[in-house]
């Protein structure tokens, strides 16, 4: 498109005023494109010609934020085809055409209709063309140009955060970096100083400083102590125009916190701590708490306590409570007021995390003295031993002393001690103890085979304060005495073959003895003396606590004798020697050549099957009982199915009639008169029965009045006789036997009340020594209630 553009250029006029302004000056240039002019000749002498170009500007500049009243002039479009006769019409298209930018169709002048903001849009691309007003034919091709918005300083710097949060260690050196702040300016950074920001500090001196170009905040004062001041508020300003006058500015607040470092040692608040603790304090209990103060916080205030000196080594220990940083003093060994009444400890506290940078500030530890005073407590008696073991032979006589226990009061007053046995550990009252000297003796005969050990508990009680008690276990071993005879190890039953030969072993027997000799058992077997002369069998002692039963002849006949009973004497080798005679049952059976049993008599077969006579009797009794139960059950079922006794109304024989009707309860006062039962002297003149039809022709029976007694009540026997006489003489009574129940209680008994509610309440009020004078039948009661005081109290 051949278009001559008339452009007015605006230039900067001056910058001297405080709020400097921009003035744009545009000048118009142009020429006829395509015109020629002579420039000389070429080598051939041909004259050279230069074509004149028409200047075309592809950019317009427009000042933002225009505040004038007239439309802001942008520039002018002109075409070579425009002769000024109004035949050319200029058309503008593109961004903002018709809205932001308006063109004069005749003159080609372009104006801005609104205030423009470069920060919203920095440039606009438009297209212009010239057309014939009458034919709309394009006189020039479409041309593109740009309108750029010229920046002015209309935006102040803005920080990216507000407020800033920062931390810096206390006691930091000068120049320690804290945080960097950043401010941005929306103005054009490529044009002038409108977007050039300079930082300065408004509040926070002399503690901090800021780099004017980078915005880096640093410490400006050494030795800032968190324990003195922890938080600081710093105000930073960002100003454009390189900080010159007339520039716009923005501010932000930086909250700076001094973080803790371990620059303070722990210190005890006192040099001497004193605690009191009872001597009865249990091991592991806390005796007291101590605390050292540290101005630091967090891990910098963590401390460790330890004992560096003590006049009671190992008595106490100290630990650190990590949540409170307290020193916890703990008891490790038992206290005894009578042995030591005061302890002194030297305790040291030290920081766990020490910063080597602050070693010069002194040792990060402290020391203190702890005084612990032991308080006296009334303690229970203390036994000389933790447990006692006593031995007694099982044949020891009653009241034999088997040992003694000893306890004493550990307190200074040294109270007397009274001994007793905890009867919950000696329910059978086998043992007793002397209340004064602690001697243990037996009350009943012992049997080691029944109980080889007895475990009892002895109680020691202070005489002046019975609530102070202590216990000690006493283990009593019953020593063995050879008081049991040996017997067969089991119930032996064997057989002998009819074709047996002499001296053939048919059974090996062994023995058992509940006694336990120190050297082990040694049993001796022999045939009983009364059977030695006519014996059919012999006994051979194997010398190993077993014996063999041998035949003494070559053959036996089951028809002549089917069962033999061999008496075997077993004795032990202890003192005093004990022996017993045991019977071995031998049955005669038919055997094969190898000695295997083939046939025995019925009794022998039964025995070999493992069923003794007692077992057969038990089985028979069970069968009989089952049969009786079945028969009884069948009889009960038949009885339920029987017809009632009264078959018809004509049956006038005596019958038992069952009445299944229910009475009216307590409110039914017509069935009977309860007053008669309550008052035997009450006389009912004309009471009619309810169980039969009243007969008016029978005169009422006069009942004699009983003589009054001392308490206006008759004796039970007289009462029953009177009622019996009334029923016997009553003509209206039923013609069959009936049961009359009289719910009447007598006036009392000469034996008085048998209730235990009015008896004495304490066992100590009774003297049961008279029970021993009542004879052997009351000996058990005399042993239970007639013992000495220590036995009963325990």
| Average of per-residue pLDDT values | 80
Strand residue content: 25-35%
Write down how many β-strands occur, each being a DSSP E stretch of 2 or more residues: 47
**Low confidence ranges:** 1-39, 51-57, 602-609, 645-655, 682-693, 708-712, 789-794
Largest sheet: 5 strands, mixed
The CATH H-level homologous superfamily of the domain at 487-599: Cadherins
Shape: elongated
Q: How many separate helices?
A: 6
Estimate the helix proportion, in percent. under 10%
Report the CATH architecture of the domain at 487-599. Sandwich
If you consult CATH, what is the topology of the domain at 487-599?
Answer: Immunoglobulin-like
Class from helix and strand fractions? mainly beta
Radius of gyration: 66 Å
Give the N-terminus to C-terminus distance in angstroms.
134 Å
| CATH class group of the domain at 487-599 | Mainly Beta
Concise synopsis of the structure shown:
This protein is mostly beta strands and 794 residues long. The chain contains six helices and 47 strands.
Q: Keywords, please?
A:
beta-catenin binding; 794 residues; Immunoglobulin-like; mainly beta; transmembrane helix; 6 helices; disordered N terminus; 5-stranded mixed beta sheet; 4-stranded antiparallel beta sheet; transmembrane
Give your account of this protein's structure.
One of its GO terms (molecular function) is calcium ion binding. It holds the Pfam family CADH_Y-type_LIR. Keywords: Calcium, Cell adhesion, Membrane, Repeat, Signal, Transmembrane, Transmembrane helix. Cadherins are calcium-dependent cell adhesion proteins. It is a single-pass type I membrane protein. By secondary structure, the chain is mostly beta strands. The chain contains six helices and 47 strands. It is elongated. The N terminus and C terminus are likely disordered. The longest helix is centred in the last third of the chain and has 28 residues. Among the domains are: about 90 residues, Immunoglobulin-like (Sandwich), CATH 2.60.40.60; about 100 residues, Cadherins (Immunoglobulin-like); about 110 residues, Cadherins (Immunoglobulin-like, Sandwich); about 100 residues, Cadherins (Immunoglobulin-like), CATH 2.60.40; about 110 residues, Sandwich (Immunoglobulin-like), CATH 2.60.40. Strands 40, 42, 45, 46 and 47 form a five-stranded mixed β-sheet that branches. About 10% of the residues lie in helices and about 35% in strands.
């Amino acid at each position: 498109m051949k278009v001559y553009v008339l452009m007015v250029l605006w230039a900067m006029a001056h910058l001297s005023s405080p709020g400097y302004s921009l003035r744009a000056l545009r000048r118009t240039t142009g020429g006829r494109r395509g015109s020629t002019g002579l420039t000389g000749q070429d080598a051939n002498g041909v004259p050279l010609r230069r074509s004149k170009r028409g200047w075309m500007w592809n950019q317009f500049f427009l000042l933002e934020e225009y505040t004038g009243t007239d439309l802001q002039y942008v520039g002018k479009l002109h075409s070579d085809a425009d002769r000024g006769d109004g035949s050319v019409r200029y058309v503008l298209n593109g961004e903002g055409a018709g809205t932001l930018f308006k063109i004069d169709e005749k003159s080609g002048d372009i104006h801005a209709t609104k205030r423009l903001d470069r920060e919203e849009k920095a440039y606009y691309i438009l297209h212009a063309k010239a057309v014939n007003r009458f034919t709309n034919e394009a006189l020039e091709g479409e041309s593109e140009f740009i309108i750029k918005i010229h920046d002015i300083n209309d935006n102040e710097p803005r920080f990216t955060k507000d407020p800033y949060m920062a931390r810096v260690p206390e006691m930091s050196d000068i120049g320690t970096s804290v945080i960097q702040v950043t401010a941005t300016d929306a103005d054009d950074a490529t044009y002038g100083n409108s977007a050039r920001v300079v930082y300065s500090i408004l509040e926070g001196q002399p503690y901090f400083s800021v780099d004017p170009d980078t915005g880096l905040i640093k410490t400006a004062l050494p030795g800032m102590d968190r324990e003195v001041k922890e938080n600081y508020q710093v105000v930073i300003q960002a100003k454009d125009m390189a900080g010159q006058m007339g520039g716009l500015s923005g501010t932000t607040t930086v909250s700076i916190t001094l973080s803790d470092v371990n620059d303070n040692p722990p210190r005890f608040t006192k040099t001497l701590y004193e605690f009191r603790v009872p001597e009865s304090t249990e091991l592991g209990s806390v005796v007291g708490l101590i605390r050292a103060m540290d101005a630091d916080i967090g891990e910098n205030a963590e401390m460790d306590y330890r004992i560096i000196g003590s006049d009671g080594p190992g008595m106490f220990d100290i630990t650190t409570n990590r949540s409170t940083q307290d020193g916890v003093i703990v008891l490790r060994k038992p206290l005894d007021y009578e042995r030591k009444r005061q302890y002194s400890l030297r305790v040291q506290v030290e920081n766990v995390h020490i910063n080597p940078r602050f070693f010069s500030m002194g040792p990060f530890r402290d020391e203190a003295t702890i005084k612990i005073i032991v308080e006296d407590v009334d303690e229970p008696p203390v036994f000389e031993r933790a447990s006692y073991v006593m031995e007694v032979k099982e044949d020891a006589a009653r009241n034999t002393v088997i040992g003694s226990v000893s306890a004493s009061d550990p307190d200074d007053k040294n109270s007397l001690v009274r001994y007793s046995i905890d009867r919950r550990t000696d329910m059978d009252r086998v043992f007793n103890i002397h209340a004064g000297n602690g001697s243990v003796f037996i009350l009943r005969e012992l049997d080691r085979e029944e109980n080889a050990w007895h475990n009892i508990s002895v109680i020691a009680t202070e005489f002046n304060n019975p609530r102070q008690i202590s216990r000690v276990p006493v283990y009593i071993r019953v020593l063995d005495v050879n008081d049991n005879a040996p017997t067969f190890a089991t119930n032996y039953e064997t057989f002998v073959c009819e074709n047996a030969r002499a001296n053939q072993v048919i059974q090996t027997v062994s023995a058992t003895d509940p006694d336990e000799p120190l050297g082990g058992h040694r049993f001796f077997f022999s045939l009983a003396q009364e059977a030695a002369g006519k014996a059919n069998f012999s006994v051979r002692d194997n010398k190993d606590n077993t014996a063999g039963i041998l035949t003494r002849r070559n053959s036996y006949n089951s028809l002549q004798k089917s069962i033999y009973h061999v008496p075997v004497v077993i004795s032990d080798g202890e003192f005093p020697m004990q022996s017993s005679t045991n019977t071995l049952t031998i049955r005669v059976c038919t055997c094969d050549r190898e000695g295997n049993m083939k046939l025995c008599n019925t009794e022998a077969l039964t025995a070999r099957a493992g069923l003794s006579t007692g077992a057969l009797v038990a089985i028979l009794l069970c069968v009989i009982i089952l049969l009786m139960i079945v028969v009884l059950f069948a009889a009960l079922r038949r009885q339920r199915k029987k017809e009632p006794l009264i078959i018809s109304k004509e049956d006038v024989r005596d019958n038992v009639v069952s009445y299944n009707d229910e009475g009216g309860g307590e409110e039914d006062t017509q069935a009977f008169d309860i007053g008669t039962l309550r008052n035997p002297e009450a006389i009912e003149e004309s009471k009619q029965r309810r169980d039969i039809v009243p007969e008016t022709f029978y005169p009422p029976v006069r009942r004699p009045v009983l003589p009054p007694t001392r308490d206006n009540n008759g004796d039970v026997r007289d009462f029953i006789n009177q009622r019996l006489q009334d029923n016997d003489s009553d003509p209206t009574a039923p013609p069959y036997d009936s049961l009359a129940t009289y719910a009447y209680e007598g006036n009392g008994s000469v034996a008085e009340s048998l209730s235990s509610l009015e008896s004495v309440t304490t066992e100590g009020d009774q003297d049961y020594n008279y029970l021993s004078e009542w004879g052997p039948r009351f000996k058990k009661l005399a042993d239970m209630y007639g013992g000495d005081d220590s036995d009963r109290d325990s």
